[in-house]
Write a structure and sequence with these properties.
The protein has 2 domains: 200 residues, Rossmann fold (3-Layer(aba) Sandwich), CATH 3.40.50; 39 residues. It is 43% helix and 13% strand. A 7-stranded parallel sheet has the order 3-2-1-4-5-6-7, with helices on both faces. Helix 2 packs parallel to helix 3. The model has no long low-confidence stretch (mean pLDDT 95). The structure holds NADP nicotinamide-adenine-dinucleotide phosphate. NADP nicotinamide-adenine-dinucleotide phosphate (NAP) binds next to helix 1, strand 2 and helix 5.
């Protein structure tokens, strides 16, 4: 099959946080197909990383982030594309009262501060070259918060969306584009496991569990979650020269889930 984006990112160095699974893996594959040299970060080593450069690090800590910045600078010298994809929530169910300070702090570190630290580490060389693209992967929960266990996650993603806009105002005049992508529900392997647990606990089928998640979101007009590759394709476009005029904007990719304009 013809590769429509071959070599579009040739010569570019791209870093994808959480690039070993789910959406991050799909983004890393898409950028590599477009010709970029791809660096992926996660806590545990993937079974295979092909030609991608893997750096093990816990990005929810300052030390983990510092390690990544140093290794990229010493091995590659520069970074052209930074995809802040890593994120998630593991806070317990039980409502607002069950969520501790520790849960809040960990979720905010993972979903907001990790990106702030990486941006701060890589922006100086991007600004010096007047070139670079930074993507922040947020979530529709930044605009459509769910309660129960994801209160901190939703608040952290709202903070990330706001921060991304503010940062774009500061650095876009100096040549660096900053964008936010807010996916709706994505069919990742982690989410498949989540559905299996719901089905097992509630003694329902996977289809019924899928419907219960879609109902909790107020329905997905498209009738299904996104495939990771569908979100990755859009991010591949955003970081390409075709999107050179785009900066400071948030793109919701949710199959129509958010009900408001
Ligand atoms: N899935 C969805 O439905 C959905 C919806 C909206 C938005 N999003 C957003 O999309 C992004 C990707 O989500 P996903 O569902 O694709 O995630 P995922 O499948 O759970 O994968 C998470 C990735 O991040 C890595 N990771 C997690 N914690 C880390 C840490 N502290 N330090 C370094 N790496 C870490 C994981 O590897 P290790 O575990 O080995 O570290 C893995 O590579 C997140 O920002 C998420 O909030 C997802």
């Amino acid at each position: 099959m013809e590769n429509h984006f071959s070599n579009e990112l040739s010569g570019k160095i791209a870093l994808v946080t959480g690039g070993t699974k789910g959406l991050g893996k799909a983004i890393a594959d898409r950028l590599e197909k477009a010709g970029a040299k791809v660096i992926i970060i996660a806590r545990s080593k993937p079974e295979a990383n092909g030609n991608m450069h893997f750096i093990p690090a816990d990005l929810s800590t300052a030390a983990g982030t510092e390690k990544v910045i140093k290794e990229v600078q010493s091995k590659f010298g520069q970074l052209d594309i930074l995809i802040n994809n890593m994120g998630g929530s593991d806070t317990p169910a039980g409502g607002f009262a069950a969520i501790t300070d520790e849960n809040w702090e960990k979720t905010i570190q993972t979903n907001l501060i990790a990106a702030v630290r990486l941006d701060r580490g890589f922006l100086p060389q991007m600004l010096a070259r007047k070139s670079g693209v930074i993507i922040h992967v947020a979530s529709i929960q930044g605009r459509l918060p769910l309660h129960e266990s994801t209160l901190p996650y939703a608040a952290a993603k709202a903070g990330l969306i706001n921060y991304s806009k503010g940062l774009s105002k500061e650095v876009s005049p100096k040549g660096v584009r900053v964008l936010t992508v807010s996916p709706g529900w994505i069919a990742t392997t982690t989410n498949t496991g989540f559905l299996e647990r719901i089905a097992e606990n509630a003694k329902i089928t996977i289809e019924e569990a899928t419907k219960s998640v879609m109902d909790a979101l107020g329905g997905i007009p498209f009738g299904r979650p996104a495939l990771p590759a569908e979100i990755a394709e859009f991010i591949g476009f955003l970081v390409s020269p075709k999107a050179n005029y785009l900066t400071g904007t948030e793109y919701v990719v949710d199959g129509g889930t958010i009900p408001t304009i």
